[in-house]
Amino acid sequence: MSDFETVIGLEVHAQLATRTKIFSGALVSFGDEPNTNVTPLCLGLPGTLPVLNRQVVELSMRMGLAVGCTIQTRSRFLRKNYFYPDLPKGYQISQYQSNNEMPLATGGGIEVVTADGGTRFIRLVRIHMEEDAGKSIHDEPFVPPGESMVDYNRTGVPLIEIVSEPDIRTPEEASQFVNRLREILVYTGVSEGDMEKGHVRIDANVSIRPVGSEELGVKVEVKNMNSVRNCQRALEVEIDRQIDVVNSGREIIQQTMLFDPVREDVRPMRTKEASDDYRYFPDPDLVPIVVDQPWIDRVQSQIPELPAAKRERFESDLNLSQDQADVLTADRQTADYFEAVIAVGVEPATAANWVQGDVLRTLNEAKIEIDQLRATPAQLAALIHLIDNGTISANVARKVFAEMASTGDDPSDIVERQGLVQISDESALETTVDELIAAHPDEFARLKEGDKKLQGFFMGQIMKATKGQANPKIASQLLAQKAQ
Amino acid sequence: MGESNELNARSAHELLPLILKGEITALVVCEAVLSAIDAQDAEVNAYITVDKEGALAQADSVDKRLANGEDVGPLAGIPVALKDLICTQGLLTTCGSNILPDFVPPYDATVTQRLRHAGAVIPGKLNMDEFAMGSSNENSARGPVRNPHATDRVAGGSSGGSAAAVAANETVLALGSDTGGSIRQPASFCGVVGLKPTYGRVSRYGLVAYASSLDQIGPLGRNVTDTALLYDVIAGHDKSDATSADLAFEPTLPSINKGVEDFVVGVPTEYFAEGLDAEVRARVEQGIAALEAAGATTREVSLPVAGHPDYVIASYYVVATGEASSNLSRFDGVKYGLRVEGEDLGDTYCCTRSAGFGDEVKRRIMLGTYALSAGYYDAYYLKAQRVRTLIKQDFERVFEDCDVLAAPVAPTPAFRIGEKVDDPLQMYLSDIYTVAVNLAGIPGISVPCGASSEGLPIGLQLLAPPFEESRLFRAARVVESEGGSTT
């Protein structure tokens, strides 16, 4: 057992899902040819001026309100001054928090589940808006040795930085925190949240202290954790390192560490010679961001039900299992699809089975998103209705669904077209049963003697003979009568 | 300099009807301006770039459109030269600096677009103090501009090239920029009219920034009417500049001859205190008397903060240099302009900026960097912003009772080249009557009101509340016609 308590604060950068950049009309796009999504502003050309994209404020506010922040009705952009080739203006336009400066959103927080099954509320310091920098390119084949190149496509891509209080106590809580945040970002449409595309980036401040101590230890910043798994791993490694340092009688020094996901270790970043005086001051090219109450109210009213609340409702109101609720709320589109199916009167448990089963399997196999699925929720509901009223069997229904998914046709059309209507007519089925008994006298004799295995044999034969269209309930009743 | 009967010496409002009626062509006007440049500019040094080919093509295009009966715009065929920090697509823009020896903007400033749309002809780009930092145009990498009235004298700064080119008939009109007096002071020194508009009235898009919260582009002309004509073309809201005022714009030209009978003219006592040259005082008072003679009421007013040199010069140099230190960070040798390779990245920045910037620019970057530094921000930048608020309130208070204020532009007429270069503080004091206007964001105009015994022009400064430029033109028209114009 460790004698130390870990204290973690996270800074999560999320890329906002806007069409264009924060201060220019250049497109936000990923993977394009370098330096193609740029305007003179993105290149820091002399004389250019920033003009704020209103959607950035709207999305940032939406995230703030979703996690309970207070929205500042008046805030400003400041310049953070430093020299680097990927920063074309020599300053980053950002927001700042100090005694006389408040960013767009402050306070709020989200809950995580602790190791003992309880919950912990992780408070947020703030959510502020800023522009992304460009990307330095060092080791691509087209870069001559010893040189660097810069891609300014990413310059000016809108970001929010979500800063937590040092309320996180374990790497597992940290990864939960990031997952919860990411889920909310995606649910609310604030960010696409694609970690592989760098939409969500995580930095951590970590320190340890003896259990029971209230004082904060010397904090170490850990960067370059580009996935939730890496975040958790990096924090575990860094905490182990800090405990080793203290246990061996040395002192932890304040520094910035880079996580190496391949070697799974942390290494000190080359320390910058320049000091960290960014000379923040209000950007005189921009006017204060003024947000009025009607705007705040409108954004608030547009926030959809958040995943945690949805999970809770699916479990308590719809009597779904925790697993089902988790699967169905994993993304908003799946949950919306499921709810659209039950909205037309399908039993939640039945709808959950279908969405969790055939729907998700179809998506996986076709490698498509649910909004690309050709079978609509109403069509799925109609299909389930066809089973309920005995028109088709559950087995046939699965084939029909596959057809619906690829063609987008109505289930009743497919059933009719392919002649899949279930045979529930007793006299028609009786002829089939009689023929099969005649064809298999030995087996029938054994069934009569009470060999229950033969029940399955005959049912199989009936289904084979009717191409699966026999109503199994009626067929088995008929068989039972004959065998008496 | 310049024969007054030549086309390049005529006023824009005289040339326009002649061009529109087809009595003269835009081409001959352009040629007249280009020959004046050829003949004189080796001495005056008002131009950094002369775009002979481009200008002739623009003039020719105006003539052709006129011949086809097309709409040619309110400045059809009128030469308007631009201070070399206003971006011109395809035409070199140097900011008077060695750090931008070869920057050709891929876009036009909003004012450039408006000029092109209005049918103006752009003969070239005008000399200036490097990045608009200076009061004498001696801080230009391309050498000082000489005052056309006395070539051993400075033309003023930082829009020295703009004022001198207009005065020397090397253009008909010009645009300059004014951050602390950079249009008004050279206009005064060169005997032309120069307007610094209300902050937010003219788009800054495409103006290479010195101090973003103070910079404004403004017109210079040889008379008030021409200046108003140009102002009406460049003023108005622009969505490319977030600080541009989103207000309806009423053209000023129709009202410039309305006189000042109903005006109360405030005369701030602080602007006539010690340090003001006696001849300047006499000519300025003469100009104020002309306003009275035209029916205006004058009244002494006090500007305890806005008129106090300690407050205005100090807060101006903190705010302006703070913003400049950040605005000029982009000149780092990475993307465009000069690059001097060093041993590593940091060294390359250092070598590039050491070689590229002149002394005054370096001085202001260092001052501004210091003023914004952690631990000093509150004492300097924040305090300067508080003083700025007081300056604004000072003006607001006096404008409750006055329509315009009248004051000198500069303490002295144009001084000798080299006279103040070694004394930056003395140089800074030449802005003593002009910087408060920028800090308050209000409009100001310099209009000639006579000359010194040595024949050096002297300007009268008129100030108005925000967006009341038309009052300035009305009062300046009176001074111009009643007082002595030197041109």
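qc> The CA atoms of residues 65 and 477 of chain B lie 33 Å apart.
qc> done
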